[in-house]
Amino acid sequence: MIRFEQVAKRYPNGHVGLHELSFRVRPGEFLFVTGHSGAGKSTLLRLLLAMERPTSGKLLLAGQDLSTITNAQIPFLRRQIGVVFQNHQLLFDRTVYDNVALPLQILGLSKPEIAKRVGAALERVSLSDKAAQAPGDLSTGQQQRVGIARAIVHRPALLLADEPTGNLDPRLAAEIMGVFEDINQLGTTVLIASHDLALIARMRQRMLTLQRGRLIGDGEAA
Ligand SMILES: Nc1ncnc2c1ncn2[C@@H]1O[C@H](COP(=O)(O)OP(=O)(O)OP(=O)(O)O)[C@@H](O)[C@H]1O
To answer: Which residues does the UniProt record annotate as the domain ABC transporter (predicted)?
Structure first.
C-alpha cells in the first residue's frame, strides 16, 4: 500500500524534515507514527498527500510514484485517501449531514448516492441521529467523529490522521481509537500520527518512531 524507499525531504531553507526513510505498509494495516515535535510526522503525512515532494528516494502509494506525480494526477490520488485533522475543520454553519456530504458533492455524485453513503458513514461513527444538527450542538468527541465520517465517506483505501485525539480527554481519545479500529477492520489501511504514547501503548499496533527525521523504531508499541 505504502512504500518509502530512502525517502528524504529537505526544505528550501536547508532544513531536513526526513532523512532517507525506508518502510512498507501492507494493505489493511493499522499503524502509528510517533515522535517528538519536529520529528517529521507531519512531513511524512504531507508527502503521502503529495502536498510536498520527496527531495530524493522513491515513495509509492497504491502503485503510484509520488516522487514523480504530476499536479494533474493529484486529485485522483486524493480520492484514495481520507484525512482526519486534530481540529476537525468542520463547517459550523452547515448541518452534520452537509459536512459529511461535501466531499461527495465535489466528486459530483447523485443525491441518492450521496444520501446512501452519508448515511453509512454516520452509522459507522454512531451519529445517525445527529445528521440534522449543527456541529456546534455536538460534544467535542462527537465533532471529531463527524470529521472521521467526512474522511471515510468516499471510501478511501487509506485513512490518515494527524493527532486526531490531541484535544480529547483520555476516555474520549480511547473511544475515537475504537472508531479507527472499526474502520480498519473493514479493510481500510489506517495511519495515525500521534505523540500520545500512553494511548498508543494500549492499542497494541505497529508503531514507527521518528526522531529528528530518522526512523529509530518499528514494531508493536511496548
Ligand atoms: N515548510 C517547512 N520549511 C522548513 N522547515 C520545515 C517545514 N516544515 C517542517 N519543517 C522542519 O522539518 C522538521 C520536521 O517537521 P514536522 O512538522 O514534520 O514535525 P512533526 O513531527 O510533525 O512535529 P509536530 O508534532 O510539532 O507537528 C522540523 O524540524 C521542522 O522545523
So the answer is: 2-221
